[in-house]
Design a protein that fits this description.
Helices cover 38% and strands 18% of the residues. The chain has 288 residues and is of the alpha/beta class. It has a domain at 7-148 and 179-203 and 268-286: Rossmann fold. A seven-stranded parallel β-sheet has the order 3-2-1-4-5-6-9, with helices on both faces. Strands 7-11 form a two-stranded parallel sheet. The chain has a two-stranded antiparallel sheet with strand order 8-10. β4 (78-82), α3 (90-103) and β5 form a beta-alpha-beta unit. The protein is globular, with a radius of gyration of 20 Å. Bound molecules: NADP nicotinamide-adenine-dinucleotide phosphate (NAP). NADP nicotinamide-adenine-dinucleotide phosphate (NAP) binds at residues 11-12, 14-18, 37-38, 41, 62-63, 82-85, 93, 148, 150-151, 154.
């Protein structure tokens, strides 16, 4: 009799990273359990013939629902957790889910954190990621931390209707990364988790770009004139003041840029080490 295949639990499978991780590992015949809030939002995975591997299991649980999470997590050998949607409750949701995984005796959790996670990080969400990481490191489970940089998709969404990327990023640079390289890196860890215990990896792109360079690249790829306008921090709060969002959200938006100015997004990349090939450049991502 063959050895039982490990059961890989994947959260966020209705989203960009988790969905890509699930499709990659499914194509390789791994045993998967997708843990989602709403199974109807899952992209259909290709039908698999019985001889090609076990069917994919789907369980419903949000991070804050301990009972559902316990039920969903029992039997999982290695669990991939993407961070929750941003909200004032996000940290509590993360800690609740980590506790549920430890209680369900999941041996190993892989957490998708954010680069520069630290209690003193300029980017406010990176502070929440640090507290989540700390909780995981103290949970008793084996752990691996993947710290992704900003996604290329975020850079593409930075310009306003008027084609201006405005923010207090100064001349700082950001080593943004593609969703597919983040997913490929996570899949590499989940395939052989024991090789990655107590490791923290930087999932960054191959080059650190200033917002001026990003604006020029977007102009070349879209044909629409995109420019970068430096703001002061005061101007940044004022220009976003009538968006009608809460203070925590405004602080996060503004600190996206001040973190770039502070050099906190200019990082080396562990993607090639994990996947065996260099991460995609912004030009490649845009197809130029
Ligand atoms: N590095 C960056 O530039 C950047 C930018 C934005 C966000 N992020 C963070 O990175 C994470 C992964 O990125 P992504 O692009 O894959 O995001 P995404 O496409 O928005 O997917 C997020 C996934 O997480 C699930 N989720 C969110 N909150 C949850 C909760 N409380 N309990 C259980 N599941 C929850 C979502 O489920 P539903 O389908 O039910 O909503 C979805 O499947 C995001 O969730 C966010 O925390 C990073």
């Amino acid at each position: 009799m063959g050895e039982r295949l490990p059961l890989i639990g994947i959260t966020g499978a209705t989203g960009a990273v988790g969905g890509r991780v699930a499709r990659r590992l499914d194509a390789e015949g791994h045993r998967l359990r997708l843990i989602v809030r709403d199974p109807s939002r899952l992209d259909p995975l290709p039908e698999r013939a019985a001889e090609d591997g076990p069917p994919i299991e789907v369980r419903t649980a949000s991070y804050s629902d301990t009972d559902a999470a316990l039920e969903a997590l029992r039997g999982v050998d290695v669990l991939f957790m993407v961070s929750a949607a941003e909200s004032p409750d996000r940290l509590r949701e993360h800690l609740t889910f980590i506790d549920a995984a430890a209680d369900a005796q999941v041996p190993h959790m892989v957490y998708l954190s954010f680069t520069g996670a630290s209690p003193r990080a300029t980017f406010t969400f990176a502070r929440t990621h640090f507290r989540t990481e700390e909780h995981l490191r103290n949970s008793g489970m084996a752990w691996t931390i993947l710290r992704d940089n900003f996604y290329f998709a975020l850079l593409e969404a930075m310009a306003g209707q008027d084609g201006i990327i405005r923010g207090p990023a100064g001349e700082g640079r950001v080593a943004a990364v593609s969703h597919s390289d983040v997913a490929a890196s996570a899949a590499a860890v989940l395939r052989t988790p024991r090789d990655h215990v107590e490791q923290t990896y930087e999932l960054a792109g191959p080059e650190a770009l200033s917002l001026g360079q990003i604006a020029r690249t977007l102009t070349a790829s879209t044909g629409r004139r995109i420019t970068y306008r430096r703001e002061s921090v005061r101007e940044a709060y004022a220009s976003r003041g009538d968006y009608g969002v809460q203070q925590w959200q405004l602080d996060a938006w503004v600190s996206t840029y001040t973190a770039i100015a502070a050099g906190e997004l200019e990082r080396r990349s562990d993607v090639a080490r994990l996947t065996g090939r260099p991460p995609m450049t912004f030009d490649q991502h845009l197809g130029i």
